[in-house]
Design goal:
Arp2/3 complex 21 kDa subunit ARPC3, 297 residues, mainly alpha, single chain
């Protein structure tokens, strides 16, 4: 017991020192690497929580908070806190042996919350303006493509942008952990097969309800939630198309579905095509039937 306590304190001190040194160097280089340190340092917290108790992890998180407060910048402090929270949540869930989807949902959920805070409450502190970034992206795309959406319509998709950023960042954080933790002799491997993704019907009902509410009572906050739910249905349609092409071993059309998914952000016919496919799949269970036929053969 005493040996474990000493080992816990030693490991915690090493992790806290790594946080302090890296964020001090990040301060020296003008906060150039703080964003990327989030993906790496969360892995160290996952490792610690897996081997020791949650209370010890919380104490280590408090120590890291004060070390970063005195050695780093406010931006570094934000990324240190988010790394600790992500590591605590994912590490505890991994220790409890939860399902792959739950682990991935936790990682993505924390990343989405981080993005919401980054682009709203802490936008001035972090010098991040989502509207400016989306405007630049629209102007860049309009130089090479004829876009069917106006700039105003494109800017209304900012909740979708936050969701996509959160999905990508959460996935990258878990990928870094899957690369780092096995080298620390800790088993950590999670995956989700998006091709076999089947959303429950309540998602479709909620989407229909939100569309109806926005038509009767327009509200910017409800509209943001509606866009996110519509995106999930759209992804279901994309998943159906990709699964069909994989089953038929048509590689070209399979990769074309990815290209069209990117284009769906600014080209409304593609967006609505995927959305309608998702609605039909959720209602009638087309993919379930396809998967049953494939497995039967």
């Amino acid at each position: 017991m005493k040996h474990n306590k000493i080992k816990s304190m030693t490991t915690g001190a090493m992790i806290a020192a790594i946080f302090g040194v890296l964020f001090f160097l990040d301060l020296y280089f003008g906060n150039l690497f703080g964003y990327y340190l989030y993906f790496i340092l969360a892995s160290l917290m996952i490792y610690y929580i897996y081997h020791y108790s949650m209370m010890e992890g919380i104490i280590l998180g408090i120590v890291i908070f004060f070390i970063t407060l005195f050695t780093g910048s406010p931006v570094s402090l934000f990324y240190a806190v988010t790394s600790v929270i992500a590591g605590l949540a994912v590490g505890y869930a991994h220790k409890r042996g939860v399902k792959d989807l739950t682990i991935i949902s936790i990682g993505v959920g924390i990343s989405i919350i981080n993005n919401i805070l980054s682009y709203t409450v802490l936008s001035k502190l972090l010098d991040m303006d989502l509207i400016d970034e989306l405007t630049e992206a629209y102007e860049f795309a309009s130089q090479y493509f004829t876009l069917s959406s106006t700039l105003q319509q494109f800017l209304e998709l900012w909740p979708l942008a936050i969701l996509i950023f959160g999905l990508v960042e959460g996935y990258c954080m878990l990928m870094c952990s899957m690369l780092i933790l096995p080298r620390l002799k800790m088993k950590f491997s999670y995956h989700i097969n998006y091709l076999e993704m089947v959303l429950p019907r309540w998602i479709l009902l909620a989407t229909a309800a939100l569309i109806g509410i926005c038509m009767v009572y327009p509200n910017s906050y409800i509209n943001c939630i509606k866009i996110i739910f519509e995106f999930f249905v759209l992804i279901q349609g994309f998943s159906l198309a990709a699964y069909v092409f994989v089953v038929n071993r048509n590689v070209i059309l399979y990769f074309l579905t990815f290209i069209l998914l990117i284009g769906a952000i600014v080209i409304w016919p593609i967006r609505y095509s995927y959305f309608i496919m998702g609605v039909v799949d959720i209602l009638f269970g087309l993919k379930k039937k396809l998967m049953y036929n494939v497995r039967s053969n």
